[in-house]
Amino acid sequence: MTYKRFEDLPVWQAADDLARRVYRLVDGRVFASKGDLRNQLQRAALSISLNIAEGFERGSKSELLSFLYIARGSAGEVRAALRFCEGSAWAEDCLSDVRELIACSESVSRQLGAWIESLKNSELRGQKYATDATREEHEQKRRSEAFIAKIQKMAERSRGSVSPPGPETDREV
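Above: the chain's sequence. Below: its structure in C-alpha cell form.
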C-alpha cells in the first residue's frame, strides 16, 4: 500500500497515540515534582511522530531512513525513561500505565524497524526523484506482482479442491 500522507501511516498513528498517552501520564501528580524527567519523556515521545512526519515529507528514501532511525532512537529513549520509572518507588501508583507505555514504545520501535528494513531493500529512491517514467515502471511492476500472486493463489485453491485417489474412491460400490 502506498501512503500519500504521513497521518495515514499506522506507525505514525501509533507514535502519536504513544505521545498523547505519555503526556497524560506525566501530567499526573506522580510526576509533579519530576520536572526534568517529565520534560524529557514528553520531548522524546513527541519526537517519534515528528521525525516520522519530517522524514516522510522530505521526499527521498535516504532522508526518510535517517529520520526513521532518529524516531526509533527516540522510541528507545522513551522506553529507557519508562524503565527508570518502572524501577522507582515513587512511580508505584502508575506502574500499570508505565508498563503499558513500555509495550507501546516497543511496538512502535518494532514497526519502525520493519519499515526501515523494507526501505533498505527497496529500489525506489523517493518521490523527490520520481519521474512519470519511473512511477509508471513501479506501478507496472506492482500490478505484475499482484497478478502473479493472484494466479498462484488460484492454483493453490484448485490443487486443494481436487481430492487425490484414495481407498474410498478406488473401490467399487
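Residues 129-159 form one domain.
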